[in-house]
Amino acid sequence: DQQVKQNSPSLSVQEGRISILNCDYTNSMFDYFLWYKKYPAEGPTFLISISSIKDKNEDGRFTVFLNKSAKHLSLHIVPSQPGDSAVYFCAASASSNTGKLIFGQGTTLQVKP
Amino acid sequence: NAGVTQTPKFRVLKTGQSMTLLCAQDMNHEYMYWYRQDPGMGLRLIHYSVGEGTTAKGEVPDGYNVSRLKKQNFLLGLESAAPSQTSVYFCASRRQGYQPQHFGDGTRLSIL
């Protein structure tokens, strides 16, 4: 039973346009959500997070939206840049006491110049 | 500031051999985690630690053991390596509260 799903394995966008990456979850106990970016041969790098008491969090070009009723979150990147090309993972946690994360499968974003 | 450092970066083992992967963090974080990543899949939690001297099982703990004798180090052991344990292993750490985990660059392990 996959509790966190990223249904799009890949996404290709033009430089300067918006990239929208999506993530769905099933566990209503999740209260903290994160997005990580991963380049080949490197570890995941934290991008942005959101707690369940909010529906939007913004950091520069990155915005995360949370729709609790739909159990859906999305990451918007505006404007997209070639350096944003990477694998993006969403992750969710149900307990700040342990901090255990459940990851989605990842979406590979390609930003074309 | 090194952050999270994993040793070694690459290793090839034969079935049945044992080895230990080392994770060291210099951020004074309480919590540490070991994940594995397989092709087409997200990271899956193997074991984790909420403080020095404590460890607990994650999603996929079978075939692995861990120890956290010092706050800054978290060791992952394979007692008898199996081909199914071929994977990329990531270590992470974080502070208390709603804080992100910070990851090392991984150990690529192949078991023949």
Commentary on this structure:
The complex is a heterodimer of chains A (113) and B (112). Chain A has 113 residues and is an all-beta fold. Chain A has strands spanning 4-5, 10-14, 19-25, 32-38, 45-51, 56-59, 62-67, 72-77, 86-93, 102-103, 107-112. In chain A, the strands form two sheets. In chain A, strands 2, 4, 5, 9, 10 and 11 form a six-stranded mixed β-sheet that branches. The mean pLDDT of chain A is 96. In chain B, strand 7 (64-67) and strand 8 form a beta hairpin. By secondary structure, chain B is mainly β. In chain B, strands 2, 4, 5, 6, 9, 10 and 11 form a seven-stranded mixed β-sheet that branches. Chain B starts with a strand and ends with a strand. The radius of gyration of chain B is 13 Å and the shape is globular. Chain B contains no helices and eleven strands. Helices cover 0% and strands 54% of the residues of chain B. Chain B has strands at 4-7, 10-13, 19-25, 31-37, 43-51, 54-57, 64-67, 73-78, 87-94, 102-103, 107-111.
Give the low-pLDDT segments of chain B.
Answer: none
Largest interface: A-B, 27 and 28 residues
With helices defined by DSSP (H or I, 4 residues minimum), what is the helix count of chain A?
Answer: 0
Structural class assignment of chain B = mainly beta
Q: Measured on Cα atoms, how large is the radius of gyration of chain B?
A: 13 Å
Features:
heterodimer; A: 113 residues; mainly beta; six-stranded mixed beta sheet; five-stranded antiparallel beta sheet; globular; B: 112 residues; seven-stranded mixed beta sheet; 0% helix
Task: Give the arrangement of secondary structure elements.
The complex is a heterodimer of chains A (113) and B (112).
Chain A: E1 4-5, E2 10-14, E3 19-25, E4 32-38, E5 45-51, E6 56-59, E7 62-67, E8 72-77, E9 86-93, E10 102-103, E11 107-112
Parallel strand pairs in A: 2-11
Antiparallel strand pairs in A: 1-3, 3-8, 4-5, 4-9, 6-7, 7-8, 9-10, 9-11
Chain B: E1 4-7, E2 10-13, E3 19-25, E4 31-37, E5 43-51, E6 54-57, E7 64-67, E8 73-78, E9 87-94, E10 102-103, E11 107-111
Parallel strand pairs in B: 2-11
Antiparallel strand pairs in B: 1-3, 3-8, 4-5, 4-9, 5-6, 7-8, 9-10, 9-11
